[in-house]
Amino acid sequence: MSRDSNELISAYLDGELSPAERAEFERKLASGEISRQEFEEMKAMTEVTSSVKLASFPDEVWDGFWSQTYNRLERGIGWIFLSIGAVILCSAGAYQFLRSLIEDPSSPWWIRLGTAFVALGLGALFVSVLRERIFVRSTDPYRKVKR
Amino acid sequence: MGSGLSIHMNQSDGGMVAIPLEDLDERDLILRCQSGDKAAFEPIVTRYMRRAAAFALGWVGNREDALDLSQDAFARAYKALPRFEADRPFYPWFHRILRNLCINYIGRAKYQKEVPLEDDYPLRGRELSPLEHAERSELRAAVWAGIEQLSEQDREILVLREFQGLSYTEIAESLEIPKGTVMSRLHNARRRLKDKLTTLVPEKVGREET
Hints:
The complex is a heterodimer. In chain A, 77% of the residues lie in helices and 2% in strands. By secondary structure, chain A is an all-alpha fold. Among the domains of chain A are: 3-50, no CATH class; 104-147. Chain B contains nine helices and three strands, in the order ββααααβααααα. Chain B has two domains: 16-106, Rna Polymerase Sigma Factor, Chain: A; 130-205, Orthogonal Bundle (Arc Repressor Mutant, subunit A), CATH 1.10.10.10. Chains A and B meet through helix 1, helix 3, strand 1 and helix 5 of A and helix 2, helix 3, helix 4, strand 3 and helix 5 of B.
């Protein structure tokens, strides 16, 4: 049986053939050009799958669907603002804390030195990660793929 | 959440008329969304929410997560709308977002697995016997197990055809593939499902003696 004939079995069972194509299919089936056994097996299979359906959703679900989706849209914008604000505040707080610690003459010199190294290390790591992200973004072959 | 009306100039007298958002075509709604009008997204969501939730259910297997994923997909689609070309049909583009979310979801180790299938055949007003109930339950579980074992591509096209009842033309539009490819993919997916079911429920789809 040719590949096209195989595919026609599904299309026939799904009612996707035109009247002329149906007649041609039935002629080929009767003459044995299309395997009767393959046809019967596929028919039995589609009878099984068509005897079940996806569980339905309660009607009240649809009443709240848009409002819940809308809440997600609002929440998304809220998270963006919250994240930006948190980054600004945390950065400012960390800067003030480090500055006061390093400039405080009462702190032992080794605490000030250690703190300065931690700050420099974090800064270097941040710049490194940022540079990598920018590089990946500019060279990613899938960047123009619409998702 | 917005007025639900769109103000347009009347072509005949030049006056302004208010048109309900749901009467606008998809392109106009998307253009309004792209200019920041969230209310214009409501008719689009309402138009496709059942289809989206049913598709997600066919992947993830439980209603709660299916609703969650479909709402998440709409929210992501809205955020991505500025990059969307309004002249293109919305659903095929949205379908890919939803599909990717579903694939990521089922890739996780833990999620609530159920058999999201019901019987869909006429009972002719009679009650099923306990044995028939058990057989139907076993069959539903077998069909779902067979579908879960298929590749993403096979599973997607079977859900669209067998459980959402889309025509070949509608599937072709959703997946942005030619109708002939739908025919071939669907047939191959069915053959592979038949092979799975032949193992799981041989008495239903087993080979006939010739």
